[in-house]
């Protein structure tokens, strides 16, 4: 143990460097975390008295088909939105970074714009695009002789719309992440590849992907964490009403139980189950994408 | 070569059309009357009502005051976050010390907690600290974030160890390694972090709503909400306010995004 | 290395425990929540902080209050409306106060009755003296069941009336003036028969079946829970509303819009020729269907009058000046000032004595020059008040979602009803 303390003392500057986060964590998060753990085994309407209910909240959750449906919806939307989006973002970043591309500044801002555009505008547009009777998309489908699609009335249809919304909002965002990651790759690597007569696809697969691995891990982790906390898109698209079929995510479910039905204890229990789910999937991601790290 | 060039640019342009369209529509809506917003098929051309809408916004809310508040909070928050996150992220990426792994994983786990459930207890803490209504409540709890630290750590992994060793032999302190060696290499990463942090502060809504008590201290996002009433309102005015609140973000992005194509010293990163 | 990891985790956990223990042991000073700024007694003015939202109280009324009470520094904070306002209020109350003196409350005031100890009992400050000025049903929404405790004075009401396209009704050969509709279309069955004819002759429809269901339930004298808190959402009055809505859908008289944009498009293109809506829906129609200007009318609704919305104003227990605060609230919601609110935002006043005043006349060109105010006034007096419960929202959401799936996913209505009831009962048993 003496050796350990010596080592700790030797690294004191490093502890100082990382301390801000942990001090803030102790002050602002530890009490809320314990509070919400305590809450998860209680019944509380948010203002009145708390009553202890043991593990009832968890038992109810595991038996509630609505909870399981929310989990299924969540995974479906997450996969539909994130997998294609991350691949496209990587390709776009790679292309913008090519030396032959002009107006790089314009493309950067253009692709990033969806992430800045206010949700109020986005919602009006998506509603107008995907309406059953008066949607632009159905209008186009009909005018080229195809059948209408009941976008917002079926689980699949509304999940596709939500996934499109998420992918659209975060495509440029992730492309910007990759773009800054691409700056880490030394130019001479590309030049050498070009001298060897490598095609764009070969350069992409052999140089870009391996060099970007830690950055890709970052985006995958963040998309997972974000994907299981999807909340804004399905909520605002449905307006004040209940979310469209197949689009109620876990956080929406939790939010409604807590802030609308005033079952704060139950909502806290849901949040802890969600925490465990995200944790498990993140560990999986870490193991898959982090082979050559550290 | 030119064929490739044309193909690549066409591909990007198609993507750009999809990306820009809703923003274009936002601009269109802010130049039209409310009735044009709801009509079908929607009006896609500019109208002549922008000035009317603009004046309505200015009459109803103290826009520039809120803008000033928000810029101030965003600049302070972003500066603090860039410093603390990059210092911590760099430390985690390049040094091993007792407990470093465990501490790192604890930090990662904090990102996975759904934040909504922490709202009430966090409000209580702010109240106990007597920070209600103060910008401290907005700036200090978010000075260092797991997101930012994780991002910088992933980016800094590529910094050449030899570079750090050489600097240490030259007598550089650990902080010197961060300040003189790492920071220049981290510029593109800091640019991204700066943009997201600035945007995050700009668009944050729920937390400022709960901890700010004085309307004169409201941020832009809160003030914009004052334009809305419970039922129908002047939508064109709301859209114009929204557009005006977005423009500074775009400006900020344009200024900072040059850093994405920052030249990095040869040999600074691992091949 | 393993041991080192363990020890650092332990260290972190210990620190965490210490801090959280401190947090929980801190005595919460619930008795004195006012901020130091309120206590600065440099002059004799007292400070009252008021929370409201855009469109709740006219800004000119607030200015008038400042003039009328020169010894009070009235700080009116205009906050975001809707759910955000409620979230801020709930969080502040959960966190033990530290907020405003006067708060505006929307129709969710009935859920606040459960926590009436957080509010000043307005009966203690002379609310009884002005009670007769207000609509009785509206007044009762802010009072406890035994009428001993009042947490809010009424501001506006939102009676639900029938909005319809007079031109299309005429074309279909059905009752088309407000008088004819009131006289001939009395029940929901009458309305459904009328809708059928309108659909056949003009191809236009009413809103969704969920809209219809909510509207019929709004007219009922019973909601989903009785006075003792027993669930009655599976009883005859609810099933009848469900069946009527399903029938309307099966006869093809409902228009299945999926979003507000689509509803507006349908109205603007003449696909929706009637729907029941609250008094505030006037603005929705005008901005949503600009091409149909001059063709709309409103009428006394078939099946009885419901109410959708309308706010009230109360005083938090944490205030230091309940008496002064009451005087301010009383002034803000006085009949003359509510009239100003109607002129400005179309909030229909809760004080019937002014309904017939010439200033109340509200002739809208969009509605073919009809005086909307007289229809609202007539309806407002007849509103059915049903007992509200904090769990109503849960039941309404579950039933609406189920009913919506009958149309959207072509589910069997009987089976869906049974499943929805099962789910609601399970949720309530918790």
UniProtKB/TrEMBL annotation, chain A:
Q: Which residues form the ABC transmembrane type-1 domain?
A: 71-285
One Pfam family assigned to this protein is BPD_transp_1
Keyword DNA damage in the entry? The reply is no
Q: Which UniProt keywords apply?
A: Cell membrane, Membrane, Transmembrane, Transmembrane helix, Transport
Localisation per UniProt entry: Cell membrane
Q: One GO CC term of this entry?
A: plasma membrane
Q: How does it sit in the membrane?
A: Multi-pass membrane protein
Q: Provide one Gene Ontology biological process annotation.
A: transmembrane transport
Q: Where are the transmembrane segments?
A: 12-35, 75-98, 110-130, 150-171, 215-232, 264-286
Listed SUPFAM superfamilies: MetI-like (SSF161098)
PROSITE patterns to which the protein is assigned, alphabetical:
ABC_TM1
| UniProt similarity note | Belongs to the binding-protein-dependent transport system permease family.
PANTHER family reported in the protein's UniProt record: ABC TRANSPORTER PERMEASE PROTEIN (PTHR30193), INNER MEMBRANE ABC TRANSPORTER PERMEASE PROTEIN YCJO (PTHR30193:SF37)
Q: What is this protein called?
A: Cytochrome C biogenesis protein
TrEMBL record, chain B:
Signal peptide positions on this chain: none
Query: Which InterPro entries does this chain map to?
Result: MetI-like, MetI-like_sf
What does the UniProt keyword field contain?
Cell membrane, Membrane, Transmembrane, Transmembrane helix, Transport
Q: Source organism's superkingdom? A: Bacteria
A GO BP term here is: transmembrane transport
Please give the PROSITE patterns that the UniProt record associates with this protein.
ABC_TM1 (PS50928)
Query: Transmembrane region positions?
Result: 6-27, 66-84, 104-126, 138-157, 177-198, 236-256
- Residue intervals of the ABC transmembrane type-1 domain: 67-256
Query: Any idea where this protein resides?
Result: Cell membrane
Q: Which family does it belong to?
A: Belongs to the binding-protein-dependent transport system permease family.
What's the protein name? Answer: Sugar ABC transporter permease
UniProtKB/TrEMBL annotation, chain C:
* UniProt entry keywords in alphabetical sequence: Signal
What InterPro entries would the database entry show?
Bact_solute-bd_prot1, SBP
The stretch of residues making up the signal peptide is 1-21
SUPFAM superfamilies according to UniProt: Periplasmic binding protein-like II
Do you know which Gene3D superfamilies this protein is assigned to? Periplasmic binding protein-like II
This protein's superkingdom?
A: Bacteria
Protein name as annotated = Sugar ABC transporter substrate-binding protein
Q: What is the lineage of its organism?
A: Bacteria, Bacillati, Bacillota, Bacilli, Bacillales
């Amino acid at each position: 143990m003496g050796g350990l303390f010596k080592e700790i003392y030797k690294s004191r500057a490093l502890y100082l460097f990382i301390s801000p986060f942990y001090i803030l964590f102790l002050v602002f998060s530890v009490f809320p975390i314990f509070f919400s753990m305590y809450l998860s085994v209680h019944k509380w309407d948010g203002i009145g008295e708390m009553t202890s209910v043991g593990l009832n909240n968890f038992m109810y959750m595991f038996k509630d088909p609505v909870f399981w449906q929310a989990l299924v919806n969540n995974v479906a939307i997450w996969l539909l939105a994130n997998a294609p989006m991350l691949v496209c973002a990587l390709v776009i970043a790679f292309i913008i970074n090519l030396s032959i591309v002009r107006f790089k500044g314009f493309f950067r801002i253009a692709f990033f714009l969806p992430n800045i555009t206010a949700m109020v505008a986005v919602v009006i547009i998506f509603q107008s695009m995907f309406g059953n009777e008066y949607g632009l998309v159905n209008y186009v489908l009909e005018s080229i002789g195809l059948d209408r699609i009941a976008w917002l009335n079926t689980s699949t249809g509304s999940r596709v719309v939500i996934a499109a919304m998420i992918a659209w909002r975060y495509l440029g965002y992730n492309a910007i992440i990759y773009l800054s990651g691409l700056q880490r790759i030394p130019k001479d690597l590309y030049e050498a590849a070009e001298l060897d007569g490598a095609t764009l696809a070969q350069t992409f697969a052999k140089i870009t992907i391996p060099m970007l691995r830690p950055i890709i891990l970052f985006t995958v982790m963040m998309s997972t964490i974000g994907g299981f906390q999807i909340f804004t898109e399905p909520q605002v698209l449905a307006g004040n009403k209940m979310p469209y079929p197949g689009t109620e995510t876990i956080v929406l479910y939790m939010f409604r139980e807590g802030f609308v039905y005033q079952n704060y204890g139950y909502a806290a229990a849901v949040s802890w189950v969600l925490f465990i789910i995200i944790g498990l999937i993140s560990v999986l991601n870490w193991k898959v994408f982090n082979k050559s790290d550290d | 070569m030119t064929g490739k060039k044309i193909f690549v640019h066409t591909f990007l342009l198609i993507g750009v059309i999809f990306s820009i369209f809703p923003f274009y529509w936002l601009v269109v809506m802010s130049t039209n009357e409310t009735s044009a917003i709801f009509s079908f098929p929607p009006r896609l051309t500019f109208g002549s009502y922008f000035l009317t809408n603009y004046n309505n916004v200015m009459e109803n809310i103290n826009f520039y005051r809120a803008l000033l508040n928000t810029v101030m909070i965003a600049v302070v928050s972003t500066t603090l976050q860039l410093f603390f996150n990059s210092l911590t992220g760099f430390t985690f990426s390049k040094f091993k010390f007792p407990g470093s792994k465990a501490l790192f994983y604890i930090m990662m786990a904090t990102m996975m907690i759904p934040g909504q459930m922490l709202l009430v207890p966090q409000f209580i803490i702010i109240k106990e600290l007597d920070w209600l209504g103060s910008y401290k409540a907005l700036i200090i709890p978010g000075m260092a974030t797991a997101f930012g630290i994780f991002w910088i750590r992933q980016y800094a992994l590529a910094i050449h160890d030899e570079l750090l060793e050489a600097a240490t032999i030259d007598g550089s302190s650990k902080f010197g390694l961060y300040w003189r060696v790492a920071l220049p290499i981290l510029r593109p990463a800091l640019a991204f972090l700066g943009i997201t942090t600035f945007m995050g502060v700009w668009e944050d809504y729920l937390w400022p709503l709960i901890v700010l008590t004085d309307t004169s201290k409201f941020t832009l996002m809160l003030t914009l909400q004052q334009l809305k009433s419970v039922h129908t309102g002047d939508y064109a005015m709301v859209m114009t306010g929204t557009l005006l609140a977005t423009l500074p973000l775009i400006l900020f992005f344009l200024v900072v995004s040059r850093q994405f194509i920052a030249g990095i010293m040869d040999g600074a990163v691992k091949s | 290395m393993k041991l080192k990891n363990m020890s650092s985790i332990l260290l972190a956990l210990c620190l965490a425990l210490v801090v959280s223990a401190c947090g929980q042991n801190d005595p919460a000073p619930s008795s004195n929540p006012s901020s130091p700024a309120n206590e600065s007694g440099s002059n004799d003015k007292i400070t009252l902080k008021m929370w409201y939202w855009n469109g709740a109280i006219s800004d000119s009324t607030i200015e008038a209050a400042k003039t009328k009470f020169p010894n009070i520094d009235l700080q009116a904070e205009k906050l975001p409306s809707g759910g955000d306002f409620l979230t801020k209020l709930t969080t502040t109350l959960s966190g033990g106060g530290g907020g405003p003196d006067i708060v505006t409350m929307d129709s969710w005031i009935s859920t606040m009755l459960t926590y009436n100890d957080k509010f000043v009992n307005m009966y203690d400050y002379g609310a009884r003296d002005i009670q007769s000025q207000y609509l009785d049903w509206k007044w009762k929404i802010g009072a406890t069941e035994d009428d001993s405790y009042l947490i809010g004075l009424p501001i506006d009401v939102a009676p639900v009336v029938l909005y319809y396209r007079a031109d299309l009704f005429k074309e279909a050969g059905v009752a088309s003036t407000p008088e004819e509709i009131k006289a001939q279309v009395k029940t929901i069955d009458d309305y459904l028969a009328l809708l059928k004819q309108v659909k056949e002759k003009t191809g236009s429809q009413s809103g969704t079946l969920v809209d219809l269901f909510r509207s019929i339930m709004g007219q009922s004298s019973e909601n989903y829970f009785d006075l003792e808190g027993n669930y009655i959402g599976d009883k005859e009055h609810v099933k009848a509303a469900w069946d009527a809505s399903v029938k309307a859908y099966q006869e093809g008289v409902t228009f299945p819009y999926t979003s507000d944009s689509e509803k507006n498009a349908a109205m603007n293109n003449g696909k929706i020729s009637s729907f029941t809506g609250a008094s505030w829906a006037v603005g929705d129609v005008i901005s949503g269907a600009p091409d149909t200007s001059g063709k709309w009318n409103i009428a006394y609704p078939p099946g009885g009058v419901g109410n959708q919305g309308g706010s009230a104003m109360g005083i938090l227990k944490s205030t230091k000046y309940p008496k002064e605060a009451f005087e301010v609230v009383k002034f803000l919601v006085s009949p003359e000032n509510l009239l100003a609110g109607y002129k400005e935002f179309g909030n229909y006043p809760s004080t019937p004595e002014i309904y017939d005043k010439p200033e109340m006349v509200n002739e809208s060109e969009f509605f073919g020059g009809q005086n909307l105010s007289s229809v609202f006034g007539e309806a407002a007096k007849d509103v059915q008040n049903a007992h509200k419960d904090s769990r109503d929202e849960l039941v309404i959401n579950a039933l609406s979602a189920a009913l919506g799936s009958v149309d959207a996913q072509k589910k069997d209505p009987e089976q869906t009803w049974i499943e929805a009831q099962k789910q609601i009962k399970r949720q309530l048993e918790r």
